Amino acid sequence: MGVKLFTRTVPARTADPFHVHYSGNAGSAIAQNTLPATVRGTQERWMKRFESESIPEPETSIVNIIAHVLELSGPSEVGNHQNSSLNDAQMAKIEALCECRLARMPIQYIIREWDFRDLTLKMIPPVFIPRPETEELVELILQQMENQEKTLFLEIGCGTGAISLSLLKHAPKASAIAIDQSRIACELTRENAESVGLMDRLRIFKHKLVNDLPPELHTQTFDMIVSNPPYVPSVLIPTLDPEVKIYEDLRALDGGNDGLTVIKAILRVAGKHLNKDGVLWLEVDSSHPPVIEEFLTKHGELMGLRFVASYKDLFQKDRFVEIVKL
């Protein structure tokens, strides 16, 4: 669960997923211009405004907004429309969405969708926004699943459903169960699963993980468990970027005093619910792999778990942990 926001090429397919009333007078300053507004002029004006107010990734922000409003296939297409004129309705909509960005709302929430690997998923606040590091976790898992027969896996903390849906799409013999403590996250995972045609292989439960799975799953075992859990130490939550600490669900971030509270709960669940030789995959803070390895060296045999390896992310930080059931 990386906590920085990020840039990505994203299709702008939804006509108006951001439900705001756009006033015809929203661009009164615009209306004073004698020449029609162009994409280039609007992009440059808002880039300067974002830069002057220290908005992160100013170019990415305005390009994604323009692509969304013009219903282009993606932000890379904006360059082909630099001389296009914008009508009053388009300008009013761009102004409204840019005001949201000035308020430090993440661009993913503003345009209400984002790409994860080869899936375009709906995004709504405050459900945690998947980060690019997590795509690497999915790739590691898919490499391991490549030669496996039918696999039943559990995702703990599904959020948008990005991990489960990406795995299911590329592992056609797999099926999954996903849990999340957030009702909104469960509903969003369901909606995304239905939109990409994978709901038939996925079951979703609203459940806060403390000591075990929901009652319906107390006797269920799995070939794999995967989680991108909360792992930010509580004391660091106030230091996060405004986009994160204001808009995203802090329950998906706060990992307790040492960032390991939920991770240790997952280890207990894995010890009980993984099949023999089953695998637990975790995305963790870069300081956690040696701590988890030491913990399992001391307690792993009792839990029936063995630390296998840690893997680096695209920033060369230890981010992913592989654990096997004895």
UniProtKB/TrEMBL annotation:
<dbReference type="GO" id="GO:0005739">
    <property type="term" value="C:mitochondrion"/>
</dbReference>
<keyword id="KW-0949">S-adenosyl-L-methionine</keyword>
<feature type="domain" description="Methyltransferase small">
    <location>
        <begin position="139"/>
        <end position="231"/>
    </location>
</feature>
<dbReference type="InterPro" id="IPR029063">
    <property type="entry name" value="SAM-dependent_MTases_sf"/>
</dbReference>
<dbReference type="InterPro" id="IPR007848">
    <property type="entry name" value="Small_mtfrase_dom"/>
</dbReference>
<feature type="domain" description="Release factor glutamine methyltransferase N-terminal">
    <location>
        <begin position="46"/>
        <end position="111"/>
    </location>
</feature>
<dbReference type="GO" id="GO:0032259">
    <property type="term" value="P:methylation"/>
</dbReference>
<dbReference type="GO" id="GO:0003676">
    <property type="term" value="F:nucleic acid binding"/>
</dbReference>
<dbReference type="InterPro" id="IPR050320">
    <property type="entry name" value="N5-glutamine_MTase"/>
</dbReference>
<dbReference type="GO" id="GO:0102559">
    <property type="term" value="F:peptide chain release factor N(5)-glutamine methyltransferase activity"/>
</dbReference>
<keyword id="KW-0489">Methyltransferase</keyword>
<dbReference type="Pfam" id="PF17827">
    <property type="entry name" value="PrmC_N"/>
</dbReference>
<dbReference type="InterPro" id="IPR040758">
    <property type="entry name" value="PrmC_N"/>
</dbReference>
<dbReference type="InterPro" id="IPR002052">
    <property type="entry name" value="DNA_methylase_N6_adenine_CS"/>
</dbReference>
<dbReference type="InterPro" id="IPR004556">
    <property type="entry name" value="HemK-like"/>
</dbReference>
<protein>
    <recommendedName>
        <fullName>peptide chain release factor N(5)-glutamine methyltransferase</fullName>
        <ecNumber>2.1.1.297</ecNumber>
    </recommendedName>
</protein>
<dbReference type="InterPro" id="IPR019874">
    <property type="entry name" value="RF_methyltr_PrmC"/>
</dbReference>
<dbReference type="Pfam" id="PF05175">
    <property type="entry name" value="MTS"/>
</dbReference>
<keyword id="KW-0808">Transferase</keyword>
